[in-house]
User: Fold VOC family protein from Microbispora oryzae.
Amino acid sequence: MTAPDQYASVRYLVDDVQAAVGFYTTHLGFTLNSSAGPAFADVIRGPLRLLLSGPASSGARATPADAAVAGRNRIHLVVDDLDAEIARLRAAGLPSFRSDVVTGPGGRQILLADPAGNLVELFQPA
Assistant:
């Protein structure tokens, strides 16, 4: 079991590792931690270590074929100003919003897809 003071890791299967690294580091404030060519890279933001596994990685090869597509799960990133983040990402040319802004009792959110279709939730608490 991982110690509580270490990173929490999430694995996303991606078609193009370098495109995914570019997306997360350029647009969402992640930092590249390590890279193993086109097969794998990991990026970090706060306590989250996002494992980006390309088709040649062992993580992707271990995935059953019927579960190898992007799913309904998503990472959740808290932002201070959702409208400003949406405007910034649209100005950067990202066409990958997958929902409209949804408002609920806990706050507001929008879904964004990475280049492989994995979802990222941008969330502004109420």
Notes: The CA atoms of residues 25 and 39 lie 18 Å apart.
